TrEMBL record:
Lineage top rank: taxon: Bacteria
Keywords in alphabetical order: Glycolysis, Isomerase
Keyword Isomerase: yes
Protein species of origin: Deinococcus aerolatus
Keyword Isomerase attached: yes
PANTHER family: BROAD-SPECIFICITY PHOSPHATASE YOR283W-RELATED, HISTIDINE PHOSPHATASE FAMILY PROTEIN-RELATED
Pfam families documented for this protein: His_Phos_1
Protein known as: Phosphoglycerate mutase
Length: 206
């Protein structure tokens, strides 16, 4: 019996649009059952076509426990002829006491989230470190399984885990918006000599 080589290519995508995204309000776990809008479904199909065009080797599709991520992953899986595996640990960041606040507060009141030791954390919720830890724990066996993992997750989570995988400073990177993904945006990473490198970052899919 031969073992698969660990995955060296990784796709990370944000889910398609939801009504909550249009409203622009932080909801965290309260949004777990939110489904895609008509535009969100169109974005999911566009994402599927884009990923298929990239011809991933032995693709494997993973989605968070939230409905919108699974609905986004489904057209990708259908087009590639595989199934979707739902993984705990990929779900959106819990904003704690910030639930119900507008997205705009992430810019205008960002300093309220900054703590000592290069830390970003939501009061009563999760920190960047918390999210990166749980995402990495979920991702480890996925990468060990080989092929090309395609992970459909959420905006705040993708920022958190990319900071971790690429070794970037937390506060500076979060503040810059460098890793912000629009709905259905796609990032491609490739691992070389034990380090993840960006091939495409937050590619806007329409």
């Amino acid at each position: 019996m031969t073992c698969s080589a660990p995955a060296s290519r990784l796709f990370l995508a944000r889910h398609g649009q939801t009504a909550g995204n249009v409203e622009g309000v932080l909801r965290g776990p309260d949004s777990r059952h939110d489904g895609l809008t008509a535009q969100g479904y169109a974005q999911a199909h566009a994402l599927a076509r884009r990923i298929a065009a990239l011809n991933p080797d032995s693709p494997r599709i993973f989605a968070s426990t939230y409905a919108r991520a699974q609905q986004t992953a489904a057209p990708v899986a259908d087009l590639l002829g595989v199934t979707v595996t739902v993984l705990d640990g990929l779900q959106e960041i819990d904003p704690g006491a910030w639930r119900g606040r507008p997205y705009s507060d992430l810019d205008g009141r960002f300093d309220e989230l900054v703590g000592p030791g290069d830390r970003v954390a939501f009061p009563g919720g999760e920190s960047q470190q918390d999210v990166a830890d749980r995402f990495e724990a979920a991702l480890k066996p996925v990468l060990e399984g080989g092929g090309t993992p395609i992970v459909v997750s959420h905006g705040g989570v993708l920022i958190s885990v990319l900071i971790r995988l690429l070794g970037d400073p937390v506060v500076q990177t979060w503040r810059s918006g460098r890793f912000t993904h629009t709905n259905a945006a796609l990032t491609q990473l490739r691992q070389l000599e034990g380090r993840w490198n960006v091939e495409t970052l937050a590619e806007d899919i329409q």
